[in-house]
Design goal:
Layout: H1 4-17, H2 20-43, H3 49-86
GO biological process, one term: ubiquinone biosynthetic process
Coiled coil: 59-86
Pfam families: BMFP
């Protein structure tokens, strides 16, 4: 298996021996690529992780309330059924 530390060392050696122009080009390319990706992701209308987590918590609370209301409705239906049976 390839040692990750050795790969990192080799990558650092290659980078340190590159001409400055190539390093600048790589940095520029990386910056432009990040910018393009960020712009495209923003256009895709994704929600942030924070917003997702908030909505997940809202959904959990809503489900809990729905379960409570279902139980209350069942109890009221049972009481109503019992009252009509005794009449």
């Amino acid at each position: 298996m390839i040692n990750p530390a050795k790969l990192e060392e080799i990558a650092k050696q290659i980078t340190s021996n590159m001409p400055q122009g190539v390093k600048n080009l790589a940095d520029t390319l990386e910056g432009k690529t990040k910018q393009v990706l960020q712009n495209k992701l923003a256009e895709m209308d994704f929600v942030s992780r924070e917003e997702f987590d908030v909505q997940s918590q809202v959904l959990i609370r809503t489900r809990e309330k729905l379960t409570e209301l279902e139980a209350k409705v069942a109890l009221l239906e049972q009481q109503l059924s019992t009252e009509t049976d005794t009449e």
